[in-house]
Amino acid sequence: MTYSKARLFLLLLSLSSCGQLMAHGGLVSFVRKVGEKIDSMAVRGVDRRYIDAPERPWQIILRGNVSQTAVSMHTHGDINGLDYRANPYLKTTPSQYVGLWAGYRGYGLGYTMNVGGDRGMNLTFGATGGAYGVNVRIHSFENSTPNFNFSTPILSEEEKETWNDVELIDPIRVRTVFADGYYLFNGKKFSYSAAYDQSAIQKRSAGSLMAGLMYNYTRIDYASDPNGDLVYLMNGVGKVKLWQGSAGVGYAYNWVPVRQLLVNVMAMPMLTFVNKLRAYGYTTNVPELMKDPYFWDEDVTIDEWDDWFYSRVRITPAGNKTFNSGLSLGFDARMSLTYSFDRFYLNAYGQFNNIRYQHKNTHGYLNDWFINTSFGIRF
Description:
Number of helices: 7
Largest sheet: 15 strands, antiparallel
Structural class: alpha+beta
Strand content: over 45%
Radius of gyration: 26 Å
Shape: elongated
Distance between the termini: 21 Å
């Protein structure tokens, strides 16, 4: 399908047209005309041997989503002349969302709610047509129990294990924004919407050359006084922001091995032309606190030491610096599986993203993946 859904929105938002239609036939006539318009757009310009519109235009869909984000940070330095390495690693419990969607040939409304996992915020937007797809996902979460993987000769093996069980007073906050868009050049025989919102039916196997854009924004923030020790270990870096923009050309294929089954595979090499990192630096008074005899007093309890240290530790902003990396190559891939039987269908598709950053002795990566599932009924 090569139509633009923006045209339909303009039609629906045209109050003057709405008033004229209602004046000549009322609301029922208006709804009927809009439905006829959508029906004609669903098959306009396509080869009906390859693409068709479902006979039952209405859809009710039960949707589920499982997603997970992992952040790994690596740094090394020295404390009083002794080398150390720290690898704070935080991973969310897989978030689970369920929701309901209802609409007409891919146009409609839905609601999704969190039922388990990290209890963070997960907001998604999407629009699909026969020859295009646009997706936006915003995920925010907090983590207070990273695995530090702390290593230095100053600590025994038992003390290293204690570091791995640390619970932060103030959590590490992470926000990610992923946006991608695709355009398929063979909209006459290949349908993107058949694979990703089931508002069309791919009757025969077909492929298409495709072009795509991808944008990512990631923020990792642990800059607060209670995290002064973590900021110190991370060589004064308390917050990191990353921006990446990529473009690519690839290929997509809709495979129809049997009438009820559709397998979609999309693969696209990506050239990253925007690769910017902004590191926010902070100074801490940890070196001064380490000179206090109380800091090294082995007779004080852990609770007493925590009360003493965290009531005194402070961080002070020391400016930020932006780094631009050169061009780099990446890869974008996604896959969808749809099985239809009578008026019902099942669909699942997933995507994985890997983002990396580096600043002096500190570097790390973020892994983000999700799987969407749907059970739909047409009527």
